[in-house]
């Protein structure tokens, strides 16, 4: 089950340029810490077919980082 998000917080993330899936992935990483794409897909309820696209976009925007390896692990970056 994804993290409950108020409408106000959802709007703030959207104004910062994040999609719904990107917001869910980022919040999941903030809450749970470093995870694999599969774990993020499950925790954030993002279809596995979309999770790598979402994570790549978040990494390009500077919201998350990743550690190579098999499987790669992702972590939230501070946006402040």
Rg result: 12 Å
How far do the termini sit from each other? 27 Å
DSSP, total strands: 3
Mean pLDDT across all amino acids: 92
Strand content: 5-15%
The main pleated sheet reads as:
3 strands, antiparallel
Describe the protein in words.
- By secondary structure, the chain is an alpha+beta fold.
- It has four helices and three strands; from the N terminus they run ααβααββ.
- The chain has helices at 7-15, 20-32, 37-44, 48-61; strands at residues 35-36, 64-67, 73-76.
- Strands 1-3-2 form a three-stranded antiparallel beta sheet.
- β2 and β3 form a beta hairpin.
- It is globular and about 35 Å long.
- The relative contact order is 0.18.
What would a concise description of this structure say?
The chain is α+β, with helices and mostly antiparallel strands and 80 residues long.
Please outline the helices and strands.
Layout lengths: L6 H9 L4 H13 L2 E2 H8 L3 H14 L2 E4 L5 E4 L4
Antiparallel strand pairs: 1-3, 2-3
Helix pairs in contact: 2-3, 2-4, 3-4
Quick tags:
single chain; 80 residues; alpha+beta; 3-stranded antiparallel sheet; 55% helix
């Amino acid at each position: 089950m994804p993290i409950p998000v108020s409408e106000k917080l959802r709007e703030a993330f959207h104004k910062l340029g994040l999609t719904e899936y990107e917001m869910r992935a980022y919040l999941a990483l903030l809450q749970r810490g470093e995870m694999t794409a599969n774990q993020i897909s499950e925790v954030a309820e993002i279809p596995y077919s979309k999770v790598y696209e979402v994570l790549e976009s978040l990494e390009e925007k500077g919201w998350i980082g990743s550690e190579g390896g098999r499987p790669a692990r992702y972590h939230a970056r501070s946006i402040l």
